[in-house]
Amino acid sequence: MTQLIPVILAGGKGERFWPLSRCRKPKQFLSLDGSGQSLLQQTAARLPAGELWVVTRRDLVPLVQEHLPALPPERILGEPAPRDTAPAVAWITQTLRQRYGDAVIIGIFPADHWIPDPAQFQTALAQAVAVAAQAQGIVTLGITPTHPATGYGYIQKGEPVGGGAYRVVRFTEKPDLAQAVQLLATGQYSWNSGMFIFPAGVMAQELAQYAPAILNPLTQAGVSAYGELPKISIDYAVMEHTRRALVLPVTFAWDDLGDWRSLERLAHNPLPARQVDWESQGVRVYSTDPDELVVTLGIHHVIIIRDKKITLVAAAERTQEIKKLLVQLQVQGYGDCL
């Protein structure tokens, strides 16, 4: 494989997994599949051996070191302020470009994805690295859809460029159900995995063209400019504008574990409680205490999460709204780091 420098983005808050995911220990540091390994540890383990880097929030650096004790401290970049993925990608691209040059291939990987077959993933990754080097493009791994999901972005493939990859025609943000059905019917769309592979020089050029408000302050003042950078994702800042976007459709099993409902797609309940139902239907219970007894009567399609002194009871179809709920809890004075 052409030299790949894998980078894990591990600065997210994981708010949709509240109350288990908290500000001081967000989702990427939890084990959500019953394996005993955190999502961050699993992400690191399936990446090819090499010089792994991690970008995270500055206050989470000690947790990264705890979960990845073999990782040298200088390979952990701690962001002084949360600014979404575009500033993180720009900072690590600058760092690795200065260290290795324009030709080095960088891989960007979220810390909180579930991929049960590392071998299939590594095969696809080697293919993506080869395409990125050959075509001098930004390759995103496009997940083959299994159903008309409304929680993912979609990527339309265009003309082939070799190596199983295609030019990207367009990115489509999270569609409603009717639109998702239409997209799948064309056979031209993949889910956007948020995993990107690119030569450092290529990403630097695209950032200079499409995101100068991020790149220029970092170039001039370094990380001290972080608080002034716009808060924007790499998808919005670069990928939806660049003509160098490529998609490599892949078929390995994948889930972004975006909210509590995503755990229903796993093989078993990783946080089981003792549960008794009476004339209830579609009730899922998760608890950090396996001896917890939860009894339900006559309720339907509800998710119940217990974590010590906090209980969340939510309509199953509304778990994507937990972030809004946390805003209300802040307003009502229930802590500054829920």
Describe the structure using short key phrases.
338 residues; alpha/beta
Explained architecture:
- This protein has 338 residues and is an alpha/beta fold.
- The protein folds into two domains: 4-250, Spore Coat Polysaccharide Biosynthesis Protein SpsA, Chain A (Alpha-Beta Complex); 271-331, no CATH class.
- 28% of the residues lie in helices and 27% in strands.
- It is built from nine helices and 14 strands.
- A five-stranded mixed β-barrel has the order 5-8-6-7-9. Strands 11-13-14 form a three-stranded mixed beta sheet, with no helix packed on it. It has a two-stranded parallel ribbon with strand order 10-12.
- Strand 1 (4-9), helix 1 (39-46) and strand 2 (53-57) form a beta-alpha-beta unit.
- Helix 3 packs across helix 6, helix 3 crosses helix 7 (212-221) and helix 6 packs across helix 7.
- The model has no long low-confidence stretch (mean pLDDT 93).
Oligomer, anyone? single chain
**Judging from the principal axes of the Cα atoms, what is the shape?**
globular
Terminal residue distance: 43 Å
Instruction: Report low-confidence residues grouped into runs of 5 or more.
Output: none
Topology:
Layout (H helix, E strand, L loop, with lengths): L3 E6 L29 H8 L6 E5 L3 H7 L8 E4 L5 H16 L4 E6 L7 H18 L2 E6 L10 E9 L2 E8 L4 H10 L2 E11 H11 L1 H10 L12 H6 L5 E6 L23 E5 L2 E7 L5 E5 L2 E8 L2 E6 L6 H10 L7
Helix pairs in contact: 3-6, 3-7, 6-7
